[in-house]
Amino acid sequence: MAKILVTGGAGYIGSHTIVELIENGYEVVSADNYINSIPLTYERIEVITGVKVPYYEVDLVDLDALKVIFREHPDIKGIIHFGALKSVPDSVANPSFCFDNNNISTNNIAICAEEFDVKNIIFSSSCSVYGNVMPEDLPVTEDTPLKNAESPYAYTKQNGEVMLRFISNVRDINAICLRYFNPVGAHVSGELGELPSKRVNNLVPVITQAAAGVRPHFTVFGDNWNTRDGSCIRDYIHVTDIADAHVKGIALQLAGKTKGNYDIINLGSGDGVSVFEAIQAFEKACGIKAPYEVGPRRDGDVETIYSNPKKAEMVLGWTPKYGIEDMMASAWKWQLKLAELGLAKEKL
Ligand code: WQD
To answer: How many angstroms separate the alpha carbon of residue 250 from the centre of ligand 1?
Structure first.
């Protein structure tokens, strides 16, 4: 089976995708600079798959260092490009670092694909490209017009999609941009989950940390939004469902069955879940309270966003397998494993 380069392979979605790629018979090489991950992730992948994934510690912004991977693996047939800074609040606080890191790395991946004749790229995009969607535009489809990015992170995802559209127009490169909604949860085995090297900002890990007592409580960022219960609404999707969609995407490209050389596909469940509903789902699925306080809104947050997942079903033959309570139960199982591994301490 083909060899695939996964950038950000030690990261949350990257590592889960490596597991699914291996389980579907692919050979994998990983590149990561551990800016928000740790190499231990590769051991967790081996626990599940029995495979030692060859990996490189490389900053994707360093083009010369990146080229070494392609020289040493001339049989790479596809690139799944996850390597990016993903935190909305961190990008608001440090815009230029986010622009540099995310945009230059995407361009470097495309430069390598052209130079080393790799014809397939899957780009990790995000629902944040839609901006602050109006209620009448929900659920969003791939044709929903993009509004202004609400954060530098979102802007780099809009940028990455456009860069690859222009490049795939004039090069023998097929690009599929997968717009994730909110990836959450952990591998059902409980042997792999998010292993960030920095403090977590996302809702589900802060819920599990609060429930585990790793932090005294977490803050709900606003209960005065114009939604059914006052808290923001998101489309949560299990990380393994997201990983599965990438395997289907790369298979479509390798089989030469894509329509044209560029596409955009939403990866969401199609269900909108509020923050308070997510908390209730956690407490129901795991039988434990997650202590929280309500605080002010967070910069960069959009009020409501959820997807119309029809195109993913039609083009990829993909539909999510896991529901919100499965997501929460798997996240909690991973939080308990982190404690067992002595890794549960919150990063400051
Ligand atoms: C979800 C909701 C917060 C933390 C994510 C990823 C981003 C991209 C888009 C894939 C929001 C609320 C959160 C907390 C809270 N995904 N919240 N208290 O901001 O939607 O972005 O999805 O590319 O990479 O970060 O996710 O989990 O941070 O927030 O109330 O302590 O939970 O306000 O409404 P977000 P999130």
So the answer is: 27
